[in-house]
């Protein structure tokens, strides 16, 4: 285990099981319905790569980058689009894929953003959810697992750009970010 990790929350195998269940639920929901999967970079990159390979349907894939964190462990609340999807979203069913839902600021912003641009439907899939931290009255439509109010890294999730490559998800040792 990496020495900045307090403890492992989900092993690679446990994450695989969670992703398989999510893929099955998504498959059931979009069966016979066209949709585009939009990943929120960079946190989604490993999760989305695994998820889409388990969804046995025909669909398009796009990405966007939104930011609210500014290198800290809590959201600024001010969500910005850093890079947008490539294709017009008007009339499309969108499935947004994110790594973790925390305050709900990102979820609310992205839903409103795409509805405002004429998307037919916007559903939100998150690998992890921290319901205790929610400030917005909004919930993900597909959720892998609920987790306690801790800052986690690995499997795509970062702290200051690092730890995304860890093959498991772990709680980051507080000494890494406290008193800094
Ligand atoms: P929200 O807008 O506060 O819901 O935050 C969502 C975004 O914050 C996620 O897409 C992550 O990029 C980031 N985030 C929230 N909690 C964590 C965490 O525990 N580890 C790493 N990133 C996190
Ligand atoms: Mg993110």
- Structural shape: globular
Number of strands: 9
Spatial ordering of strands, largest sheet: 4-3-2-5-6-7
Could you describe the largest sheet, including whether it forms a barrel? 6 strands, mixed
Question: Which band does the percent of strand residues land in?
Answer: 25-35%
The average pLDDT value, as a whole number, equals: 95
Structural class based on helices, strands and sheet pairing = alpha/beta
Ranges where pLDDT stays below 50 over 5 or more residues in a row are none
In whole angstroms, how far apart are the ends? 23 Å
Describe the structure.
The longest helix is centred in the N-terminal third of the chain and has 19 residues, at 12-30. The chain is α/β, with parallel strands linked by helices and 180 residues long. The chain is globular and about 50 Å long. The protein has 3 helices and 9 strands; from the N terminus they run βαβαβββαββββ. The relative contact order is 0.21. It starts with a strand and ends in an 8-residue tail after the last strand. The protein has helices at 12-30, 45-52, 105-116; strands at 5-10, 36-41, 60-67, 80-83, 93-101, 121-129, 142-146, 152-153, 169-172. Helix 1 packs across helix 2. The strands form 2 sheets. It has a 6-stranded mixed β-sheet with strand order 4-3-2-5-6-7. Strands 1-9-8 form a 3-stranded antiparallel β-sheet. Inosinic acid binds at residues 40, 43, 68-69, 75, 98-107, 151-153, 157. Magnesium ion binds next to strand 5.
């Amino acid at each position: 285990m990496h020495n900045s990790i307090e403890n492992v929350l989900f092993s690679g195998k446990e994450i695989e099981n969670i992703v398989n269940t999510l893929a099955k639920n998504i498959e059931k929901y979009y069966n016979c319905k066209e949709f585009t999967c939009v990943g929120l970079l960079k946190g989604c990159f490993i999760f989305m790569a695994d998820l889409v390979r388990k969804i046995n349907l025909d669909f398009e894939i796009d990405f966007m980058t939104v930011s609210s964190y500014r290198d800290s462990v809590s959201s600024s609340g001010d969500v910005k689009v850093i890079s947008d999807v490539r294709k017009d979203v008007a009339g499309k069913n969108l499935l947004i894929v994110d790594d973790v839902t925390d305050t709900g600021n990102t979820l609310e912003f992205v839903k409103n953003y795409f509805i405002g641009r004429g998307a037919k439907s916007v559903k939100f899939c998150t690998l992890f959810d921290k319901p205790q931290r929610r400030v917005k009255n909004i919930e993900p439509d597909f959720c892998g697992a609920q987790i306690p109010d801790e800052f986690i890294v690995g499997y795509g999730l970062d702290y200051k750009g690092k730890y995304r490559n860890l093959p498991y998800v772990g709680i980051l040792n507080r000494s890494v970010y406290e008193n800094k």
